[in-house]
Amino acid sequence: MELNETRQSNVATSEDEDAINYGNLVKQSLMNSFNVNDFIESNISTVHDIDDVVVDSPIIFLLVKCFIIGFIILAAIFGNMLVIVSVMQHRKLRVITNYFVVSLAMADMLVALCAMTFNASVELAGKWLFGSTMCDVWNSLDVYFSTASILHLCCISVDRYYAIVQPLDYPLIMTFSRVIFMLCIVWTFPAILSFVPIFLGWYTTAEHLDYLKSHPYICEFKVNKSYALISSSVSFWIPGIVMILMYYKIYKEADRQERLLYRSKVAALLLDKHLQINGISVQRQSIHTVEPCAISKMRREKKAARTLGIIMSAFLLCWLPFFLWYVISSLCASSCSSPKIVVGIVFWIGYFNSALNPLIYAYFNREFRYAFQRTLKDLFFHFRIVAPSDT
Question: Are 163 and 304 in contact (CB under 8 A)?
């Protein structure tokens, strides 16, 4: 009897332990399930947060890009248009040098209208929207007007060189017919570099042409090595070297004339002192009337040299990154591909030069600054008078 009772108590104890263990297992499984649910919910919320950031960041980036691109385009259009209107309305600006300035403003304005606008559509839409034929048209216009703008800057540097270094021979060198001839070359030569090789397919490889035909929503300007070297040399490297040489010679001449003027002033003062010591009275009015003319002429030349140096520096800073990328990416082909954002940045830094030239003239040239103010005042009063009459 005692043995049976012991066995029954052991069986009851084992059953109780099994029940307790089962209850603990159920409890642990429930806790694990709650932990898994919490983990899943937390991960889902994290994914939603990441999606919100991913959705919001492209919108912000697109708005910033749209603002920058729109500012550059509008500044290039209205700034260069202001240059053209100011020279047409103010007779004081109608000189030989400003023929190049007006033609440069026309080229920069066409860069904004015909090149920047298409590039902006690609940057904002993410694809080419106008077909393969218009892709060749856009690439041709881009190369044409950008090259014309750069060649205008080269002509301006040559014009300033003769005006400062050889002022007596300048009217004989820069005649009206010679300026028109230079402008004709500046406007016709870039067409040989742009429209002819692009429409004939000489600028790239046959594989890339087939790729563009089979992908009409892509417009990439990938050039072969020979075209990259020739076009970059004509559009940037040769004009850049000419501008640097011209500015170096202008700077040396301005420094030489400044030293000569200083020596002449010192010699005149010493001569006056010597005459005063010896008691000789000589009328020195002619020297005192000539010196202010020489000083004012020197100041004008220094301002012209400074303005040209700023224009040349802006030109190099804006276009050097693009042409370095252009040559390097063409020579090493597919082995050194660049991200799209880098390509877009170097393109628009070069485009920014077309919007920067009017600002340079407005800030560093007093005559242009005065003409800009008068033109803007006239436009403001014109719209102020016209607006009430329309209402």
Answer: yes
Q: What is the largest CA-CA distance in the chain?
A: 159
In this predicted structure, the answer to whether residue 245 has a pLDDT above a threshold of 50 is yes
Please give the residue that has the higher pLDDT: either 248 or 386.
248
Beta-carbon neighbour count of residue 306 at 10 Å?
14
Q: How does 161-191 read in b/e, with b if 16+ C-beta sit within 10 Å? A: bbbbbeeeebeeebeeeebeebbeebbeebe
Phi first, then psi: give them for residue 283, nearest 5 degrees: -70, 120
Dist CA 316 CA 319 (whole Å): 5
The label of the residue with tokens 């001449």 reads: 253
Structure-token pair, residue 52: 């919100």
- Could you give the 3-state DSSP secondary structure of residue 10? helix
CA dihedral 43, 46, 48, 51 (to 10 degrees): -120
In terms of Cα–Cα distance, which of 167, 153, 107, 108 is closest to 246? Answer: 153
Helices (H), 166-237: 170-173, 176-199, 206-214, 225-232
Compute CA 145 distance to the chain's CA centroid, rounded to the nearest angstrom. 14
How far, in Å, CA of 139 to CA of 227, rounded? 14
Give the model confidence (pLDDT) of 321-345 as tens digits.
999 999 998 888 777 778 888 889 9
Instruction: State what percent of residues in the chain have pLDDT above 70.
Output: 71
pLDDT, one tens digit per residue, over 12-27 is 444 455 545 555 544 4
Q: What is the DSSP string of 37-61?
A: HHHHHHHHHHHHHHHHHHHHHHHHH
Closest alpha carbon to 351 in 309, 314, 308 = 314
pLDDT score of 192: 93
User: Which pLDDT does position 365 carry in this prediction?
Assistant: 79
Cβ atoms 155, 184 nearer than 8 A: no
| CA-closest candidate to residue 375, choices 80, 74, 76, 72 | 80
**296-318 pLDDT tens trace:** 666 666 676 677 778 888 988 99
**280/243 Cα distance (integer angstroms):** 51
Structure tokens at 133: 């034929």
**Alpha-carbon distance values, 53 to 45, 46, 47, 65 (Å):** 12, 11, 10, 18
CB 130 within 8 A of CB 383: no
Beta carbons of 117 and 70 less than 8 angstroms apart:
no
* pTM, to two decimals: 0.76
